[in-house]
Design a protein that fits this description.
Structural class: alpha/beta
CATH superfamily of the largest domain: Periplasmic binding protein-like II
Distance between the termini: 22 Å
Number of domains: 2
CATH architecture of the largest domain: 3-Layer(aba) Sandwich
Radius of gyration: 19 Å
Largest sheet: 5 strands, mixed
Order of helices and strands: HEHEHEHEEEHHEHEHEEHH
Shape: globular
Strand content: 15-25%
Number of strands: 10
């Protein structure tokens, strides 16, 4: 209870100065694009601080941070990339899990026989985010290998740079199915598009998603970056994450 009051008091203390603050630049893994938009809106309503979202694959955003991109915080799709940044001295502290994600297959038509349906002729192209850069792509490949479907589907697989690009492939009709984040199909504007099938979490390693504050934020935006970080673990944020299929 004491920690909660401290966080609330910290937010109240910075609110009068929010209007003069530089807006926060938050690097966000593509899977969290939609939920982060809702979080940013709720954060601004609560504090008056605006957060600009820069969306991409976790791997690409990590590379940009290492090249000194002016980000204040990083919401990754895993713990590996934030931990690497911490180990290299780019963050103010160790990463902390803000949510656990879930993997789904989003398709034009239902998968009547589960993921095995992807072998059928009506599924000519299947999109997966680059496993080397995107944790959800890595999880998709883990699932396919466990089901012994990876070799059969290899000729059909189209790789995207991130979950966002994979989603675009499906929405434009370039592919017939796409492995993506559950949060994507929970976005209100997309709930009625196509069908989705959740992939058993026994088929891939838990998608623990971590957040870190980037060291340049130790300047003007340090208080605001910390306030956003604290907000991610508030009851309000947890409710928003749950609405988008995270746990």
């Amino acid at each position: 209870m004491k920690k909660q009051w401290i966080s609330i008091l910290a937010l109240l203390m910075i609110m009068p100065f929010a209007a003069t603050a530089q807006k926060l630049r938050i690097a966000v893994a593509a899977n969290a694009q939609f939920v982060a938009g809702v979080l940013a809106k709720a954060f601004k309503q609560q504090t008056g601080i605006k957060a600009e979202l820069i969306v991409g694959s976790s791997g690409k955003l990590t590379a940009q941070i290492e090249q000194r991109a002016p980000f204040d915080a990083f919401l990754s799709a895993d713990m590996k990339y934030p931990q690497e940044l911490f180990d290299k001295g780019f963050t103010t502290g160790k990463p902390k899990v803000y949510a656990y994600g879930a993997l789904v297959v989003w398709s034009k038509q239902p998968l009547k026989a589960g993921l095995a349906s992807l072998k059928e002729n009506e599924f000519r192209k299947v999109a997966i985010a680059n496993p080397a850069l995107a944790p959800y792509g890595e999880a998709a490949m883990q699932a396919l290998k466990k089901l012994k479907l990876a070799d059969d589907l290899q000729p059909k697989i189209v790789y995207g740079e991130s979950v966002a690009q994979v989603n675009q492939y499906l929405l434009t009709g370039a592919v017939d199915a796409a492995f993506t984040a559950k949060s994507v199909v929970f976005e209100p504007a997309q709930k009625s598009i196509g069908a989705w099938t959740e992939v058993s979490n026994k088929l891939y390693r838990p998608i623990a998603q971590g957040v870190v504050i980037i060291k340049p934020a130790a300047g003007k935006n340090s208080k605001y970056a910390q306030a956003f970080y604290n907000f991610l673990f508030s009851a309000k944020a947890k409710q928003i994450f749950k609405q988008y299929g995270y746990r």
